[in-house]
Amino acid sequence: MSSTIPTYSVAERDRRWGLANRLMEERGLDALIVYGDREGAYPAFYAPDAWFTNERPGSIVIFPKGEEPIVVVFISTVIEDHIQAGYTGHRSWISPENMYVGKMGTNVVEIIEDRGLDSCTFGIVGLEPYPPYFFDGVIPYNTWKAILDDLPKARFEPVGADFLNRIAAKSDEEIAVLKWSAEIGEKMCEAMRAAARPGAGEHEIYAVALDTAARNVGYTGQILLGSGPEFVGWGPPAWLYRPEAPPIIQEGDVVLSEVFASFGLLETQHQPAIGVGNIHSDFEDAAALARASYEAGVKALKAGAVFGDVVEAMRAPIREAACWQVHPLVHSLTPYTMIGAGEHVVDLPEVARYGKVLPLPTMGVDRVLESGMVFALEPNCGIGRRMVNLGGTVLVGESGGIELNSNSTRLMRA
């Protein structure tokens, strides 16, 4: 792992602001309004505001074309942190006079009126769906209603999808940050493998992953984790949201996890599947199918390819097998705009007892890939009640995918 922690330069700021100005120019917009989700969730699942500011997420950005962005933060401690950053020599992208406290629609309206922007045409980032977290958009009803009601002369146009597509291909500085995240994730997966021994509790495996992230100058807000001689679920460990004892690992169990390693708000995803001792042959077969799907995906992730062809390439190795998928096979990262599902998602007989079960849809199949786009390859295959998920983070390259991690892309052994 590099000893030099990556940071962003003023040139990166100018690249980002220039991209936003080109969007406004091409769409005939005077300004953008960009909504960022609260920082208390990992620290934010939806943070285009921080892309503009390089500050704490959880703000509303008002970006007049050709000017410096205006940032409306949610609490005064963000201002205090901005002051503190100046004491330690950090060169902020946002000047003090363009930072306000009060993340409410009425306050946004007041700022827009004070700046003489109340008759502008605004592009809005935050109204459109953003699966898997915000199927109806992210802007709260009261915030958006206040903006609409109190700015009758303004015009508004949703541009979130267009904006997110434009920022999908990462710069060299962003790729350096992603590589740092990937190194952290690799170390987290290895720590989990070492901890997955008979007699250990799931919480101990979880704990070493959290510790490893922090010790390597990164973070993770959640880890998906499950274990057992059979396992069909996928999500955070149940003992995080329901009062119950964590399972104890036994010989023959498989520990399944999804690790979210982050640094600087750029996330990599890792899919460790850890076999503890001698495991059932169904797990071995499922792992072989998932690995074949992974390899097909890496090969297909090249500039100029169409995302739908990547999805088809990953489906092909598992199509004829009698298996099902617990979640999508592949999706884009930072941002989530392309999702490729398998053909037998949630295909369990027990599903017939439930109400309408809508699997996560395949999205973005017509998108042409560009070098520097980021994808989580997470092929998964369930045979009966035994499921394996493996994979990692891959960049789109000129002639194929560029893998950022390796240990979780095969069945790991404990």
TrEMBL record:
<dbReference type="Pfam" id="PF00557">
    <property type="entry name" value="Peptidase_M24"/>
</dbReference>
<protein>
    <submittedName>
        <fullName>Xaa-Pro aminopeptidase</fullName>
    </submittedName>
</protein>
<dbReference type="InterPro" id="IPR050659">
    <property type="entry name" value="Peptidase_M24B"/>
</dbReference>
<dbReference type="InterPro" id="IPR000994">
    <property type="entry name" value="Pept_M24"/>
</dbReference>
<dbReference type="InterPro" id="IPR036005">
    <property type="entry name" value="Creatinase/aminopeptidase-like"/>
</dbReference>
<keyword id="KW-0645">Protease</keyword>
<feature type="domain" description="Peptidase M24">
    <location>
        <begin position="180"/>
        <end position="397"/>
    </location>
</feature>
<keyword id="KW-0031">Aminopeptidase</keyword>
<dbReference type="GO" id="GO:0004177">
    <property type="term" value="F:aminopeptidase activity"/>
</dbReference>
<keyword id="KW-0378">Hydrolase</keyword>
<dbReference type="InterPro" id="IPR029149">
    <property type="entry name" value="Creatin/AminoP/Spt16_N"/>
</dbReference>
